[in-house]
Structure formats: structure tokens, C-alpha cells
């Protein structure tokens, strides 16, 4: 990566300033150029970067250059704080309904990792003593239902399906009835991948939402997503209303700037991150860790 | 906004368009620098003319020293499809098989993804749709063994084109990349007479990581072409400019949907046009 070690770079930029009283606008500007490049190289949305740089510049200009720290480290500190802020300060969890079953709807683009993540979530909740049910509402992708069944079998979690000739809305409704009858306190609904601009399929999700009233609508986003992440997240959020985000494939070497984009554009928390293909590879999300990763530190 | 003057503001606007299309900082700078010097030497003052020059520069980056067509004649040929998780490998195989079969060739598929849940069933459904056979074993078996079987079957059945699916793998996973190396060893040993196409599938929604993907896959595989999928969305796939120009690998197909016919030959001119159009 070109901007690996941004920290070092900024140290260089600020070396000359050691012993100076306050950071001037000019000092900060040249440092911000490096930060801007680093964020764009990490795939953070162009607009998000612009707003962010403005904010950090305002905070950093006039900042005291403390003796103990180099000015570079201070700016890095401010950048990191603001990034962490932007990504949400605390790690969020699933909100369980006081009236079970808690209904979780997984949505997102094709291939983002919904079906796998559904299994992973189920496994985690099962560990917490819950009795999850997986519901197969992807009637389009070849062998999607089979995939969920295989996942369920591996985890010993029941899977509800009605084949691919029934509408996803009806499958979702029947799945919840089934869950209620068999004492499942969490129902996780897997849906087909779809483009945010596909009106018919976005309407289908709206119908599922209005019929089953999910407690958590989770947008599953591939961490490698580039500038399009804002369009996707913004559209899913404004059309459907999402409650949280799950970022997948962070076991790769992507810097994961999409995290910042989706969070900034929706204001919704990132709740989990996917760290591998195995059904145990789901972790809680820590904003500060991802902030450092995005900066390449 | 309509620009009439070739000034800094106009160039910045172009720069922004490239960045939000995932062209990436370094390739964008390279393009804008070239554009600046063209504007200067050719004394261009018309914004439309600048755009035309920009398109030329971009098309140039997309042009490699290699062929954009699939090289599968004369028979036999083998196509191996590789890439990270969920980019569209299996679906693209279905579409390619459909096209190759339609051109009058005998096609066979190999279910080399033995890891992902129901990956074999997914390919079998594509096989049925296209009307071609699929060589497979059960989940969890050795992918190299399946490829071996498939090559023997292809020889015995006088197949023109054997297309092999592989499991999605992140390029930074050493062991999985080594597993792929083993598959290529088998192919080279067992099927030296076959023409070989190694297609790397990249998802147009992917940002700068696609460059790293291409670089790392190239270390274990002689990639002959790229399939750029999911261009039917709002993502522009601009990262491909950096990939083709840095690695000299041609894009052979683009994926524009989930249907069997949603595969098109890559056309640099159309691609650049779409990238620069407002949405
Ligand atoms: N390395 C890695 N791979 C993942 C992760 N999550 C999912 N995958 C892989 O990504 C690919 C796609 O995952 P799926 O769960 O099928 O994705 P999906 O969103 O359900 O796909 P569609 O139903 O086709 O839209 C599979 O190969 C998964 O194994 C992750 O966190 N890390
Ligand atoms: N919109 C759109 N979706 C596509 C395209 N190509 C593939 N898909 C979808 O993307 C998802 C993943 O496709 P797959 O073919 O399973 O991807 P893969 O690379 O084989 O995935 P793994 O084997 O899990 O690594 C599926 O839902 C496909 O229908 C495309 O060009 N456009
Ligand atoms: K597009
Ligand atoms: Mg799925
Ligand atoms: Mg596949």
C-alpha cells in the first residue's frame, strides 16, 4: 500500500515544527493533504473525506504543540479521534425484543456475505443460549436455499424453507409463525442479493418489512467496496430503513474505508465484522481498531 | 454544472469524477497530469475537446498488448476461473458456458469449489440451464482431484472446452493460494495439449483492493484475462484502469446481470463512456 505508515509521513511533515507554539493553517494544510490521500486510497467516499478534512483542519489549527509529543503525533491523534467518532463510539449489539421472537432481516448486494453471515449470527446467538431459526427467502440464486440448509446443518440450527415457488414475503411470514410454534426466540431471515436500484426487488424487501416488522434490518456490506458504498448504503437506508451494518471479508488486506462511508451516510452503527469464511468468524466491531486500519497504521 | 472554460476548477471536476468512479488516486493523478500536458502542447481551450482527449488517455490505459477475445480454438481448451469470495465466478462460468456452447462447441464443467456450502449444487443448476455436464465429487474433497477427473473426462468425451470453477479465496491467504498452485500443476501436467485461459473475476463494486487482488493472483497464476462483473449497478469499476495498465492483463468480458445472457465482450470505448456519464 502506498500510504502505509501515514504516521511516519506526518512525522516528517511536522519535523520542522518542533518547539513551535501553535500549529498554523499552513502547517495543517500540508499534513491534511497526506491524510486526504490516505483516506481516498483506503476507498473512503470522496465527499466523506472532504467533510472530514474540513472538520479536522478546524480542530487542528491553533492547537498547542506540546513538548512531550511531536506535532505529527498530535495531528494523528486528532485524526484518529475524529475518525473513531465518525464510526460511532461504542460497539453495538443486537437489540432483543421483549416479546420474542426477535426478527433479524439480512439485506444487501449480491455476494456481500448475507447467507454466510446469517449462519454466523445464528451460531453466536445459540452460544448465548438463544434458539435461532434461519429462514430461506432467497428464491432466485441457484442453490441458495440448499446453501442455507447446509449452513444450518453444520451448526445444528433449524432452517425453514418453502422451495423457490413461493413468494419471499409469504416465506418470511410462514417462517415466523413456524418459529413461534417451535419456540425459536430469534428468527434470522436470509434474502436474495439485489442491487439498490432494482425497484422490483427493493419493493419486495419493503413488503417483507411491512408484513413481518423486523426488529433489526441489517445491511451486509463487503469491506472491499469502493466509492459505490455510499450509494448502496444510502439507498437501502432511505428506501427500507436499516438498523445496523455488518461488514464482511475484513480478513482480507483491504483498508476498509467503506466502513466510514456507510456509517457516515446512514448514521447507523456497524454491529459486527466478518473475519473469514468459517461460521465462527464473526467478531464485534471496535471503531478505534478500524480507524487505525483505514489510516494504514 | 456546465463548464465552458478549461481552468483549474474544470480539471478538479474531472479529477473528482475519476475518483468517485474508483480509478484511485495514483492512476487519477497520472491521467490528469497527461491531460494537463496535452492541453498545454495542443493549446486546447474547448471543454468538449478536453473530454475527448481524456477519453483517449483512458482508453489507452485499458489497451494491453494482449488479445481481448477468448482463445479457445483449436480444441481442446481449458478455462480456469479464479477470484476472491462472492465476485461472480460461478455465475460467469454459467454465462461463458452458454456462449461457448452456442458457438457450437462441446463444453464440460468442473465443480472445483468443494468448500463453499452448496457451491457444487449451484454449478449443477447452471449446468442444467446451459445443457452441459458437470464433473463433481462431494463437498470437502480435494479440488485438484476433481480437476484431474475432469481432464480425463474431457479427453475421453472429446470435449472442446473444459471450464473449471474454483472456490473463492482471499489473495492474502497463503494456504489457499498454494492450493490453487496445486490445481495449476495438475492442469499443466495432465493437459499440456490444451489451450489455457485463466480468467480472474473482479467485482466492479470493489475499490482499490482489486489491484492487490490482481497482483497477488498473478503470482500463482498466468492470468490471461479479466471478467469484470456487476457493472449493472451504479459502481463504475474504475479500478480496472489501474489493473490493466499496471499488469498488462486484458478485460475479456463484463457481467451486467444475473441472467444467462448477461455477459458482454469488453469494449473500452463504451466502458469509458459509461464511466464519465452522470449516472
Ligand atoms: N473471507 C471471507 N469470506 C466471506 C466472509 N463472509 C462471507 N464470505 C464468503 O463470501 C462469499 C459470498 O457469501 P454468501 O454468504 O454466499 O453471500 P450472499 O450475500 O448470501 O450472496 P448472494 O445470496 O448471492 O447475494 C462466499 O464464498 C462466502 O464464503 C468473510 O467474512 N470473509
Ligand atoms: N447484478 C449482478 N449480480 C451478479 C453478476 N454476476 C454475479 N452476480 C451475483 O453475485 C452473487 C455471487 O455470484 P457467484 O457466481 O456465486 O460468485 P462466486 O465468485 O462464485 O462466489 P464464491 O464461490 O462464493 O466465491 C450471486 O448472487 C450472483 O447472482 C453481475 O454481473 N451482476
Ligand atoms: K455501472
Ligand atoms: Mg445468499
Ligand atoms: Mg462460486
Descriptive key words:
heterodimer, A: 297 residues, alpha/beta, 8-stranded mixed beta sheet, B: 279 residues, 10 helices, 8 strands, 48% helix, 15% strand, binds guanosine-5'-triphosphate, binds potassium ion, binds magnesium ion
Could you give a quick summary of the protein structure above?
Helices cover 47% and strands 13% of the residues of chain A. With 297 residues, chain A is α/β, with parallel strands linked by helices. The radius of gyration of chain A is 22 Å and the shape is elongated.
Tell me what you see in this structure.
The complex is a heterodimer of chains A (297) and B (279). Chain A is an alpha/beta fold. In chain A, strands 3-2-4-1-5-6-7-8 form an 8-stranded mixed beta sheet, with helices on both faces. Chain A has helices at 6-14, 25-41, 46-60, 71-86, 114-127, 144-155, 168-181, 199-212, 229-239, 258-266, 287-295, and strands at 102-107, 132-136, 159-160, 186-190, 216-222, 244-248, 270-274, 282-284. The model of chain A has no long low-confidence stretch (mean pLDDT 90). In chain A, α1 (6-14) packs antiparallel against α2, α2 (25-41) packs antiparallel against α3 (46-60) and α3 crosses α4. Chain B is of the alpha/beta class and 279 residues long. Chain B is built from 10 helices and 8 strands. Chain B has an 8-stranded mixed beta sheet, sandwiched between helices. In chain B, α5 links the parallel β2 and β3. In chain B, α2 (25-41) crosses α3. Chain B is elongated, with a radius of gyration of 20 Å. Chains A and B meet through α2 and α6 of A and α1, α5 and α8 of B. The site of potassium ion has 5 residues of chain B, from loops.
Amino acid at each position: 500500500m502506498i500510504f502505509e505508515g501515514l504516521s511516519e509521513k506526518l512525522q516528517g511533515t511536522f519535523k520542522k515544527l518542533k518547539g513551535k507554539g501553535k500549529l498554523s493553517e499552513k502547517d495543517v494544510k500540508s499534513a491534511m493533504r497526506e491524510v486526504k490521500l490516505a483516506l481516498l486510497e483506503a476507498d473512503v467516499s470522496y465527499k466523506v473525506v472532504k467533510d472530514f478534512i474540513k472538520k479536522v483542519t478546524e480542530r487542528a489549527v491553533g492547537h498547542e504543540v506540546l513538548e512531550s509529543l511531536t506535532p505529527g503525533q498530535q495531528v494523528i491523534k486528532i485524526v484518529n479521534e475524529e475518525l473513531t467518532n465518525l464510526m460511532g463510539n461504542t460497539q453495538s449489539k443486537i437489540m432483543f425484543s421483549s416479546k420474542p421472537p426477535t426478527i433479524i432481516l439480512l439485506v444487501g448486494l449480491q455476494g456481500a456475505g448475507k447467507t454466510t453471515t446469517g449462519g454466523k449470527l445464528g451460531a453466536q446467538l445459540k452460544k448465548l443460549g438463544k434458539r435461532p431459526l434461519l429462514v430461506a427467502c432467497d428464491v432466485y440464486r441457484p442453490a441458495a436455499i440448499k446453501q442455507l440448509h447446509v449452513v444450518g446443518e453444520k451448526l445444528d440450527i433449524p432452517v425453514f424453507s418453502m422451495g423457490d415457488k413461493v413468494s419471499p414475503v409469504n416465506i418470511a411470514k410462514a417462517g415466523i409463525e413456524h418459529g413461534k410454534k417451535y419456540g425459536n426466540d430469534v428468527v434470522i431471515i436470509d434474502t436474495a442479493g439485489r442491487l439498490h436500484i432494482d425497484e422490483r426487488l427493493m419493493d419486495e424487501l419493503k413488503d417483507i418489512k411491512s408484513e413481518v416488522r423486523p426488529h433489526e434490518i441489517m445491511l451486509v456490506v463487503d469491506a472491499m467496496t469502493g466509492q459505490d458504498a455510499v450509494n448502496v448504503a444510502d439507498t437501502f437506508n432511505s428506501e427500507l430503513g436499516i438498523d445496523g451494518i455488518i461488514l464482511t471479508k475484513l480478513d482480507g488486506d483491504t483498508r476498509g474505508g467503506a466502513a466510514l462511508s456507510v456509517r457516515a451516510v446512514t448514521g447507523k452503527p456497524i454491529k459486527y465484522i466478518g473475519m473469514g469464511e468459517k461460521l465462527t468468524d464473526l467478531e464485534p466491531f471496535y471503531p478505534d481498531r478500524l480507524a487505525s486500519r483505514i489510516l494504514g497504521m | 454544472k456546465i463548464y465552458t472554460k478549461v481552468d483549474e476548477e474544470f480539471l478538479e471536476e474531472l479529477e473528482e469524477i475519476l475518483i468517485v468512479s474508483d480509478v484511485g488516486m495514483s492512476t487519477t493523478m497520472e491521467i490528469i497530469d497527461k491531460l494537463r500536458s496535452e492541453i498545454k502542447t495542443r493549446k486546447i481551450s474547448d471543454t468538449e475537446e478536453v473530454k475527448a482527449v481524456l477519453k483517449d488517455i483512458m482508453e489507452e490505459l485499458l489497451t494491453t498488448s494482449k488479445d481481448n477475445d477468448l482463445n479457445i480454438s483449436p480444441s481442446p481448451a481449458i478455462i480456469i476461473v479464479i477470484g476472491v469470495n462472492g465476485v461472480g465466478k460461478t455465475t460467469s462460468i454459467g454465462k461463458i458456458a452458454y456462449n461457448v456452447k452456442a458457438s457450437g462447441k462441446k463444453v464440460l464443467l468442473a465443480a472445483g469449489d468443494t468448500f463453499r456450502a452448496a457451491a457444487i449444487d449451484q454449478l449443477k443448476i447452471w449446468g442444467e440451464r446451459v445443457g452441459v455436464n458437470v464433473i463433481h465429487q462431494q463437498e470437502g474433497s480435494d479440488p485438484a482431484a476433481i480437476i484431474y477427473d475432469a481432464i480425463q473426462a474431457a479427453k475421453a468425451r472429446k470435449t472442446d472446452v473444459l471450464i473449471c470453477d474454483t472456490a473463492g479465496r482471499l489473495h492474502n491467504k497463503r494456504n489457499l493460494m498454494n492450493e490453487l498452485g496445486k490445481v495449476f500443476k495438475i492442469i499443466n501436467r495432465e493437459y499440456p495439449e490444451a489451450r489455457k485461459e485463466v480468467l480472474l473475476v473482479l467485482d466492479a463494486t470493489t475499490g482499490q483492493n482489486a489491484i492487490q487482488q490482481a497482483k497477488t493472483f498473478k503470482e500463482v497464476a498466468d492470468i490471461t484475462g479479466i471478467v469484470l462483473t456487476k457493472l449493472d449497478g451504479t459502481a463504475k469499476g474504475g479500478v480496472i484502469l489501474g489493473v490493466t495498465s499496471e499488469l498488462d492483463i486484458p478485460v475479456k468480458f463484463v457481467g451486467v446481470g444475473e441472467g444467462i445472457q448477461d455477459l458482454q465482450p469488453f469494449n473500452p470505448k463504451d466502458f469509458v463512456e459509461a464511466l464519465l456519464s452522470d449516472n
